[in-house]
Amino acid sequence: MAAASVSPAASPPRRHRHHSPPRRRRDDSPPRRRDASPKRRASPSPSPSPDRDADRRRGGGGSGRSRASPPPDDRDRRRRDSKPADESNGGGAPPKPPRASDGEEGGGRRKRVARVSDDEEKEDGGRRRSRRRSSDSDDDRRRKRDRERHRDSRRHRRRSPSSESSDGGCSRRHRRDESSRRERDERRRDRGGREERDRRRSPERKEPTPPLPPPPPLLPEMIPGRTGGIYIPPFRMAQMMREVEDKSSTEYQRLSWDALKKSINGLVNKVNATNIKNIVPELFAENLVRGRGLFCQSCIKSQMASPGFTDVFAALVAVVNTKFPEIGRLLLVRVVLQLKRAYKRNDKPQLLAATKFIAHLVNQVVAHELVALELLTVLLENPTDDSVEVAVGFVKECGAMLQDLSPQGLHAIFERFRGILHEGEIDKRVQFLIEGLFAIRKAKFQGFPAIRPELDLVEQEDQFTHEISLEDELDPETNLNVFKANPNFAEDEKAYENLKRSILGAESSDDEEGSDDDDASDEDAEESDDEDDEEQMEIRDQTETNLINLRRTIYLTIMSSVDFEEAGHKLLKIKLEPGQEMELCIMLLECCSQERTYLRYYGLLGQRFCMINKVYQENFEKCFVQQYSMIHRLETNKLRNVAKFFAHLLGTDALPWHVLAYIRLTEEDTTSSSRIFIKILFQELSEHLGIRLLNEKLNDPNMQDSFDSIFPKDHPKNTRFSINFFTSIGLGGITETLREYLKNMPRLIMQQQKPASSESGSDSGSDSESSSSESEPSSDESDRKRSKRRKK
Hints:
nucleus, single chain, CWC22_splicing_factor, Initiation_fac_eIF4g_MI, Serine Threonine Protein Phosphatase 5, Tetratricopeptide repeat, 33 helices, mRNA splicing
């Protein structure tokens, strides 16, 4: 029975209670071996192998069994070997493996305590505990995995007992591999812990970083070229140029070339219609002969970037072309080549920009009109949607100039447009563009002027026109865009200085000499000169923004006031600069003329200003002269309001009566508008003053010189015209003095001629008699007319 119970093959394996794996001791000593179960007796193997002992100490490897139950192969072998031992010894308990004594453990611990300080021991203990927890968790996972594998192997052995021996060998190899892998992992963790402990004991001391070496000095060879390089501030560049001793060296030429390039690019980029007159002198101050390639390149690039400023760039080129025709030709050649390149590549944006530039060069008379006609012929020879669209835009830009310079050529171009429109092979959108172009031509290119007034800077006789054909072989001279050392650099610079003086005049040369002296002087002298220049500089507003704002304020004040007193009080509070009083008078007169009917409000307001300050009285006198000279431009309603306004000022003596001297009442010197103005003026005066007081004013002996132009006495014809005019408007009463003068005119003439006849001979006497005989019938005729009027 005992033998049968021991044999594993005869009975199924017992179910043993699995013990939890023992925790490692703190001193990392091998765990004690537990006694086997008292129910199972086995004799120790005579020569236990170290691998088996190690596996037994670590929990039986990957088999997942308890430490008291050996693997199946060892169990069979022990049963076979223990039979004679049991019989001889009587079934004694197996001997326990040797165990380390407590003295040895204490001695090892004391050695470690002596070697490591308390703080470090705590840290090491914490790290070991964490490593033990991780290793225990890893061991639990491995044991669980090994138990599942062993359970599967047992099922397999239960089915096939012959595979027992082979499974035992595989499990031994597996346990051996697992034990070696665990040992390697523990050694690696111990090594990592020691390294970390050493690193904490001796912390690394960071050495201070050495200071950076000073930057190398800037050399002329380090100046950036086309491909980039070091950025050098302008003041540093000027300092480097002053430090160079040899002014003809290649390094200095390179510095001056870069400075010239930056200056030209800056001036071209900031030019516009407002400041072009200031940019041109600055541009001529640069060496355009040396930088002509740079100037052309900058103009073309800027025009490509902003086609809306094409007319400004063309005006700038036109001014430069008057002094340097070769620069104008070079730019025209490059633009034509750019146009041909874009036409071959079907690059529509570049083609539009190039054609627009050529159109404005034609408007500025820099390019001949034949270039424009030839270009239009090429574009319309084989019409496509894009080519016709480009041609329409080109004609819009320069059609007004072509209409003046070559009307027959422009007529032929429009006939070609009409043919394309009738063919109908192009898109509807382009057909509408052509129809719009015909409408613009019918309106004489209104809205598309050839040159804006602010850009008309060159007289036609001063302009130099270049004639270039699109079929010619043209050289763009691209080598002018690149720096090249010049052996005659100093001589060329002096020659351009002389040329610049002749172009800009003596003032520019004086300014340049002064600037050279300032550069050579100390910094204090420069600062004092700058302060003097700032004091002398005056800022002038050429846009008239302040003037427009002032007029707006005056208008709103006049229109928003309740009565003339409030308006006068508000207007006097406006701070006017000297010379701006005229603007107030003009705005008051304009507001009065814009009303449907005359308002006495404006007359009272003008009277108040004339009474306050004599400056306003003089300004209203100027306004009277200006309005009378432009009276034919006013409508009837405006004319009536202006006449009543000045009549109010004259009737209240706010305006002196000598202003009437500007009115000459003759048939030749008056128009229908001026006669209506005089009629309304004197009718209003008669209403204000009455006919008697008006007659006294006009007969004042001190003012007769001012009224001679209204009541002329130089010729009977003019006198009769004045009498008839005032009689027709119902003011014949003010012409009584003039009638008496006309009645006595023959007698006065005779009295003047008597002394002349006594002195002269018989011939003169006969002439006087004939004249007197002619004058008598005329006087008789005038008396007859008067008698007829009285009878009527």
